[in-house]
Amino acid sequence: MADTNTVRILDGNTFVVSEDTGDIEATPSEPTGLFSIDTRFLSRWVLTVNGERLNALSYDDLQYYEARFFLVPGMATHYVDAKLSIIRERAVGGSFRETLTILNHDEKAVDLEVRMAAASDFADLFQVKDEILNKKGELYSEAEADRLRLGYRRGNFRRETVITCSRPARYDREGFAFTLHLEPNEQWETAIDVQTFAVGPGGRDLRMGLRAHGTERLALQHDLEEWIAKAPKVNTEHEQLGSTYRRSLIDLAALRFSPLSLGGQTLPAAGLPWFMTMFGRDSILTCLQVLPFAPDMSKTTLRILAALQGTRFDDFRDEDPGRILHEMRYGETSAFEEQPHSPYYGSVDATPLFVVLLDEYEKWTGDIALVKELEHECRAALHWIDDYADLVGNGYIWYERRNTDTGLENQCWKDSWDSISYSDGTLPPFPRATCEVQGYAYDAKVRAARLAREFWDDPAYADQLEREAAALKERFNRDWWVPDGEFYALALDPNGRRCDVLSSNMGHLLWSGIVDDERAAKVAEHLVGPRLWSGWGVRTLAEGEVRYNPIGYHNGTIWPFDNSFVAWGLRRYGFAEEAATIASGILDAARYFDGRLPEAFGGYQRELTKFPVEYPTACSPQAWSTGTPLLLIRTMLGLEPHEGHLAVDPRLPVGMGRIEVLDIPGRWGRVDAFARGRLKLDDVAAG
Amino acid sequence: MVDATMRFFEDLDRRGFEPLLAKTAGTLRFDLHEGAHTTHWLLEIDRGKLQVRQEDREADTVVGTGPRLFDELVCGKENGIAALLRGDMTVAGDLRLVLQVERLFPGPPDSRGPHHAFRREGL
Fold it and tell me: Where is the signal peptide (chain B) (predicted)?
């Protein structure tokens, strides 16, 4: 969907995707529009002057929340004759506001009929994405003297778009118009305000009192400036790294999302445009990536996920007591239970990762109060791991959806239907267990043991968790190791048969610490070996596997976020050069995307394509791709909280030059880290 | 019919303390409208300590819905968050309180929970 000439601006989960003229003409194949709370509020927004469509001379997306379009009437060949300029400036921040300016450059006066066609189909985001459109409710359009009201009603479910202008306009059911007379060099301007409403029977909006900051442009600008000022400064001789860091920081600000129940605090949403909502897995992994730079996000993420932790068995939502949610949605299909996202719990990694994040967050910030506050939820999460998740009864986390209509088949991060296979390419039966999740469970137990001992005053529980972790590690290294290939299987089926394919998931095992020391070197060798390493990054699935496809969503593409955790894992086991190899491959790739790493790009050999090939339907910006450069910086600099201090142990590749990261926040106050590129990487990767 | 609602509130009152609400404080009033008649339930939460009254008093959060739907919510036949998104349940005031109390509602009566393969074989 990521058309190169679409322009996107956003604030929280309100966003606009339009053509480069600013027009919106949504079709199933061109999913443009104004969206908020998972609903499209404008599907048509087309400006004409004297009945003519306009052409774009240029556009600027000035900030993530504002854009400006310079337009002229007529076709491209007539630009030179243009006697009129039209400027559309727009911003989102709660509502959508567009300022329309028309300038007459002619020496004669002109009479103009300016019209904006406006309509909305109120499609649920899921309907836009899946191209199904059979609305069960009723659409309406009411032209009033001073406004146009577009609406959709299904029972008590009501969504409305209300359009008003700062100058008198003629409103009709399909838009609004102005009749102008402009003298030579005269200019005319109007501000158009488009407000979105989710109205209940009492007339109250669902989202009342939710704003993290003001909705005015200045408030947004101030908020962004404050966000950047609060983050550490990165100075570097490596030009791209500096701009990539800045891009990431701004995108991260853009992706902040304020869920209904958090009273205005924010956590990272997963990605624009389809995932501007809360995802357990994505939000947690992004928080882990950005902890050294923006620790506050972890606190709010942990709190909101704790507040919505599962409490009962609900087969439609795949909910269990103690389980951390997968995805929350606010649209029509959630409301009428045509989709299970109210919220949906079908992920098996968010729950152990919740515990991992809490411990990592405390190590950086020393926020003991939060560790105490979330003790009950941590224990419930650990209980879920041992009981409800162990479907086979052999001490692993398994998954098998109970919602067989709309639930997720694969409940790990590689969640497409064909991501888990045996080496002959066939798919295993359910329940399935994937390797990286067992690593997360191990890590969760080790970390929770520390929390129990140091903060929960429960040494017996700490001992128990440590015993369980040690037993899990031993069991895992016995059951999952593929002796022939000397790697860890991607998954197990319920009969204990291994999905013996070489995959990137092993890198997460290094990060979790579950890998036996004597096997780590072999794992590292595979990760930067010719089958997994493309020259840009580690492929999700190794070249040579039956299901390998360089543009297979989880079967061969390269995911920047995946690589950042692989690099962190390599560093943990002392493979600093291999980690630096990955860091520099991914950061090199970032250059081709102006510092904004996509969700995924092709697994083609670097020498073959010379540039990273973006995956066709990748989301961008996406939170965990945005967090990737930050985790790579942490990894290369070897930033680790250690006994209340920040340890710095840099291993930078030669080409990186000098890097300084100033004002890293944490329990130590703020400290600086410096590094110089000294590592020669030529011999490390076999790619 | 309204017995389930009555049982739900009586049970909360009898329980006295609810660990899931140990971090929560505030008052919620449930206004169950049926025609011209409204039944009020007032729930006071003081860091997990619960007290229920049938009173129409000012509260931090006021939830409005019909007695039939509320009955189904407390039986697990309907889901609170979906009802909220649908507009069948309205909230004035602090939404967080409702989301915390909603977690006390049971799951659907026909939900079986995880299918443990080893237990399934044993059947």
Answer: none
- What pLDDT is stored for residue A253 in this prediction? 87
Select from A204, A342, A373 the Cβ nearest to the Cβ of B85: A342
Nearest CA among A315, A287, A290 for reference residue A301: A287
The pLDDT of residue A206:
65
Q: What is the pLDDT of residue B123?
A: 39
Q: Which residues of chain A have pLDDT under 50?
A: 1-3, 209-214, 686-687
- Domain of residue B33 covers 3-121
According to CATH, where is 2.70.98.40 located in chain A?
7-199
Inter-chain touch A373–B23, beta carbons under 8 Å: yes
User: Which positions in chain B touch A390 (Cβ < 8 Å)?
Assistant: 116
Among A311, A344, A384, most B C-beta atoms within 10 A, so best to mutate, is A311
* Per-residue pLDDT, A255: 84
Is the CB of residue A178 less than 8 Å from the CB of residue A114? Answer: yes
User: Which segments of chain A belong to CATH 1.50.10.10?
Assistant: 231-679
What pLDDT is stored for residue B69 in this prediction?
97
CA A187 to chain B, closest CA, distance in angstroms equals 45
Rounded to whole angstroms, how far apart are CA atoms A213 and A12? 10
Alpha-carbon gap, residue A297 to A288, rounded angstroms: 10
CB contact under 8 A, A157 and B99: no
Predicted confidence at residue A213, as pLDDT, reads 39
Closest partner CB to B87 (pick from A156, A307, A342): A156
Classify domain A7-199 by CATH architecture: Distorted Sandwich (2.70)
Quick one: which of A659, A676, A508, A680 has its CA closest to A580?
Answer: A680
Q: Is the pLDDT of residue B121 over 50?
A: no
The shortest CB-CB distance from B118 to any of A158, A393, A400 is to A393
Name residues whose C-beta falls within 8 Å of residue A205's C-beta, 6 or more positions apart in sequence: A197, A198, A199
State ipTM. Answer: 0.95
Tokens of A593: 């995307």
pLDDT of residue A274: 59
Check residue A3 and give its pLDDT: 46
CATH number at residue B115: 3.30.1050.10
